[in-house]
Amino acid sequence: MANVDFIIQRKGGVGKSVTATLLYQALLEAGRTVEGVDTDPSNKSLAGYKALKVTKLHILNDEEDIDKSLFDALIESMSELPKDVHVVIDNGSSNFVPLRSYMKTCDIPQVLTEMGHEVKFHVVIAGGPDLENTCSGFKELAVDFPETKLVPWLNPYNGDIAGKDGKSFKSFRVAQDHAEQIFSTVTIPKCCQTAMFRKDLQRHFSRQQTFAEAMNSPLPIVERHRLKRFWDETKKEIGLAGLV
Class for domain 3-188, per CATH? Predict the structure, then answer.
């Protein structure tokens, strides 16, 4: 059984590609075999990491709809995936609507499940001004794909993930309504909210380096230490979520 991990969220700029790279790197460091697919039509996101094995797939046609022949071929190729391989698929916000429609119409999660694979949708829940919008995106996926496991990634980079009453995400109505679908939850370390960590992480992700590359780079010692702390805490969260 292979694991097919879709990184998907309708809101742009909330950390989808960062989530894809974090999951990919954690799997690699845990000794897993990982393949990557980047379908973002606007940005070279996951595919921009030269150290990772990622295929760029332009799935939108000239009418801004899913090129069914390309995506059908991608799904077809997964029929031959060996056991225990992980496929991380990074999807851009600009193709969220047509991709969601295509996967719903063609029962893609069910097709993959019938192949014997485990399918998960990894959905970023961003704090601050994007909280409501990302929760809505999570709900849309939960409603459209009731048989598919969901993994919320709580990203506090722009603010805490908390309701007006201070309650955590697991107490949100959307999380309670779809609790049976939630496989596990990953919480990005809150150290990313502090000014020094924010600057370090901005520079790090803009370089599109893996954390292993950063640890072997000529960065200042303390900056490398902050990146290592963030990465170690993130890997721990991913491990506790049962994703590696």
Answer: alpha beta
